[in-house]
Amino acid sequence: MKAADTLYCIADDRSFRLLRGNAGRMEPIHAAGADDFADVSHALTEPGRNRSGGISFGHETGSADEIERPRLAKHIVAALEAEWQKGGAGRIVLVAGPKMLGVLRKAMPKALTEEIAQEIDKDLSDIPDHALAAHLAG
């Protein structure tokens, strides 16, 4: 009996890619970056509140990454969920730096969270697809 594939999500603060496969065979199936989504193009010149002449104009506070990370995570989760619904994968592995991993957890619906077999808190976004297996093995 053939083992079900694993669906891998490799993400960082600027992009993500989805791969399907298992040890020795990983096939890229989707990749996108923050620039691909209109709602993730927001940038702040400075963290905090915008002040002009003593008048404060409220807007999101925090660093640009803190604001953009959840926006990108929403798109990552949507792509992951769409791919999961196609079937053929038996488990999900999330790979991202600690901050993005936490944001992905928050954005993930419960039904998809239950399919996550492993979380790896490493930024492997610069590792080429063909070299990922060695980094995911241990």
Question: What are the key terms here?
Answer:
single chain, 138 residues, alpha/beta, Nucleotidyltransferase, domain 5, five-stranded mixed β-sheet, two-stranded antiparallel ribbon, 4 helices, 30% helix
Radius of gyration (CA) equals 17 Å
Q: What's the quaternary structure here?
A: single chain
Please tell me the overall pLDDT: 84
- Indicate the proportion of strand residues: 25-35%
**Main pleated sheet:** 5 strands, mixed
Query: What is the count of structural domains?
Result: 1
**Class by SSE composition:** alpha/beta
What's the CATH C level?
Answer: Alpha Beta
The tally of beta strands, per DSSP, is 7
- CATH fold annotation: Nucleotidyltransferase, domain 5
In helices, the fraction of residues equals 25-40%
Would you identify the CATH architecture?
A: 2-Layer Sandwich
Element-level helix/strand string: EEEEEHEHHEH
Going by CATH, what is the homologous superfamily? Answer: eRF1 domain 2
Give the overall form.
globular
Number of helices: 4
Q: Distance between termini?
A: 25 Å
* Spans of at least 5 consecutive residues with low confidence: 44-56
Strand order of the largest sheet: 3-2-1-6-7
